[in-house]
Amino acid sequence: MNAIERGLASLLGPPRAQNTILASDLGLSGGSSPIRADAEAAMRLSTVNRCIEILSDSIAKMPFYVFDSRSRRRITDHPACELLSVRPNPWQTPFVAKKQLEVERINGNGIAWIRRDPGTMQALEYVPIPRGKYSVTLDSSGAVVYTLIHPYTGETIRCGRMDVLHGIAYSRNGYLGISYLERAAEVIRSSRAAQEYASSYYANGGQPSGILKTESDLGGNVEVRDAAGNAETISKKEAVRREWEKRHSGPQNAQRIAVLDMGLDYKPLSISNRDAQFVEQSDLSVQDLARFFGVPLYKLQAGKQSYSSNEQNAIEYVVGTLHPNTTLWEQEFTYKILPPQDVEKGLEIRGNMMAELRGDWKTRGEWYKAMREIGGFSVNDILALEDMPDVEGGDERYASLNYVPLRLWPQLALTRNGNGGA
To answer: How far apart are CA 268 and CA 266, in angstroms?
Structure first.
């Protein structure tokens, strides 16, 4: 195994437990079967899984490009263009790298190591670092220091802030983010509890628990053997309980006829229809988790489904959730990927959020039409946003003559009346 393979093996290995949400951190410890609520367990909730997929896919599919804020034009021949649209590193596409960064940001901190040209300081690649493979601290001077596993050599290295892309979630200290899952711990705990309750309920065939009653004395112990022949001494009550559960618990044993001896009498505990239905609890959990992630309910196949409301919710998602996340990465990419001299010239890296609306032809059509009629977009500007080639004469811009400045109104009125020279 060469140095690069060793580095990749170290980089892609399992994260350390210190970066997971422990049950003790969430107040879930204690009891014979504590409810897991770490990142892995939380992802088993369909709502959490889908929210993370939606947020990360929104960033991953978004085109990022170099933009000249002075001339208001895209730059297509900048060295950073290859990182943004072709290959950020040898083994990842831009989609995969950005998705990994956003997933890690949702878990608190999206970290990527930057390799630069020693002469020009131009960024040559960036490599996302999984959680558990880095630490972030402040040194005595107040500078942020990153200690991470080098992706190629597997060695531990220390980096300054300019050599690391860092997307931060909500933070109390400004340099370390707090995971969405940690902030939603209480909701995740209740959702996991409902999920385990439902699983346990249906694992018992959807039958309520009950009481086995007998007039006989069940005191004392009895020796039982398992399938492997191992002996165990248990109480007679436990032996009866195990035998009953073996015969009548589980979906495969549902509705079986019970044959009782020893004067046993089975009395089921009553259960209401509300206890057997989890739709209401599930809806509440979906709504609570959707609020934490900022994802509209219609994207989670929940809530009221109507075209008009979903269209408005899509706009609110772009404005309220996606735009702030995009701005975070735009500023981080601009400051860390572009050389300082390019930033001073007015270059910056931007994300095109129109990609989020590519499926909404009606909204895009209305936007293009409005911008075309006020002279904001030319035909070629619109075609460029649709990744289509320019057309001859498409750079001309037009505007309606129905609206003119008030200072020109007298001249326009006289011209229309044929008295332009009066």
So the answer is: 6
**Higher-scoring residue by pLDDT: 48, 304:** 48
Q: What is the side-by-side order of every strand in the sheet holding 109-116? A: 123-129, 109-116, 164-168
Report the C-alpha gap between 357 and 361 in whole angstroms: 8
Please give the single-letter amino acid code of residue 142.
G
Round to whole Å and give the CA distance between 160 and 389: 42
Please tell me the distance from the alpha carbon of residue 276 to that of residue 197, in angstroms, as a whole number. 10
- DSSP character string of 142-174: S-EEEEEE-TTT--EEEE-GGGEEEEE-SBSSS
User: Cα(334)–Cα(115) distance, rounded to whole angstroms?
Assistant: 15
Tell me which residue of 412, 378, 403, 337 sits closest to 79, measured CA to CA: 337
Per-residue burial over 343-372, b if 16 or more Cβ lie within 10 Å, else e, is eeeebbbbbeebebeeeeeeebeebbeeeb
Cα 219 to Cα 234, 240, 246, 260, 266: the distances in Å are 11, 12, 21, 19, 19
Report helix, strand or coil for 198: helix
- The tens digit of pLDDT for each residue in 400-413 reads 777 777 787 788 77
Residues 45 and 92 in one domain: yes
Residues 380 and 395: beta-carbon distance below 8 Å: yes
* CA atoms of 145 and 286, how far apart (whole Å): 38
Same domain, 181 and 286: yes
Same domain as 189, residue 279: yes
Q: 302 and 383 in one domain?
A: no
**Predicted structure pTM score:** 0.68
Rounded to the nearest 10 degrees, the angle between the axes of helix 46-60 and helix 94-106 is 130
CA distance 283 to 280: 5
Sort 286 into a burial class: Cβ within 10 Å, 0-12 / 13-18 / 19+.
Answer: buried
Domain span at 256 = 213-266
CA 193 to chain centre: 22
Q: Answer with the one of 335, 359, 383 that is the final residue of a domain.
A: 359
How far is the CA of 150 from the CAs of 35, 97, 229, 281, 339, in angstroms? 35, 17, 52, 45, 22
Q: Assess whether 365 and 223 both reside in one domain.
A: no
Q: List pLDDT tens digits, range 8-64.
A: 444 444 433 333 333 333 333 333 334 444 667 777 788 888 999 999 999 999 999
My answer on whether 231 and 347 are in the same domain is no
